[in-house]
Amino acid sequence: MPRMTAHRRAALAATALSPLLPILWAAAPAQAHGAPTDPVSRVYGCSPDGGAAARSAACRAAVAANGAPFTAWDNLRVANVNGRDRQTIPDGKLCSGGLPAYKGLDVARSDWPSTRLAPGAALTMRYVSTIPHTGTFRMYLTKPGYDPAKPLTWSDLPEQPFAEVKDPALTDGAYRVRATLPSDRTGRHVLFTVWQNSSTPDTYYSCSDVVFPEAKASAPPPATKSPAKSRPSASARTTAPTTAPSAPAPATTAGQDRSTAPDSTPVASTTGAGHGPSAPLLAGGAVAALVLTGGAALVLRLRRR
Q1: Could you tell me the pTM of the whole model?
Q2: Which residues contact 58 (CB under 8 A, 6 or more apart)?
Q3: Nearest CA to 34 among 176, 140, 153, 152?
């Protein structure tokens, strides 16, 4: 009997197994590959498909720390987590999902390729997936005060996601996950996305670096102008000295010291009607009348002689 070649033995084995292939294929878990491309995730941005982002200093450092490029950027998944994310994924390894093949994604840096967002704005995440599957997306945003220079830990994230979306439609090869961003974030943060499949036992993890505008410093108060000099009140105007020309002073009355009146002010020149002359003036007139009367009498007496 001729000797059977290795090639013929392999062909016979394949023929014998062919009826079992559909069963084996159905038993194998389906692979729901995917990752966010907008806001760009670290695993996609640093992959060979990431374009300019892949050439950034942070991505080069991540690949060096990883020891291999992130070619399988859509396969960062952990099986059988069943919602126990915090118990399964260790602190400091959230971006890699704790998988050694993606450890370079956990490098703590503040220059990862990022996407600019506005606090409180509407967000539509584009999550590319090569195979459609049902599941729930949970989105977390690092707390205010997050330090990107330190490894990401669960304590950097709120207990509850700011958005949870179940079974969004797959359109043009991507899920569109819509949510409203928190309104109290500024500076650099991490958008941490968990996609827990319901049609497979897999859960996917991703980190997208985002930047919010810094809070604007409050403007200094406007310079105050010197207050305009206000006119004195009525009471102040009656007592305050003035250099403006004054009206002639009123006439002094009896018993008033004239030496206090200005020299140019006529005394008793404005005496009101119904008032007689002052006492000194009346006395002087009487004396003059007596003198005149006495002189006239003397002249008459001398002529009679």
Answers
A1: 0.64
A2: 46, 107, 109, 111, 112, 113
A3: 176
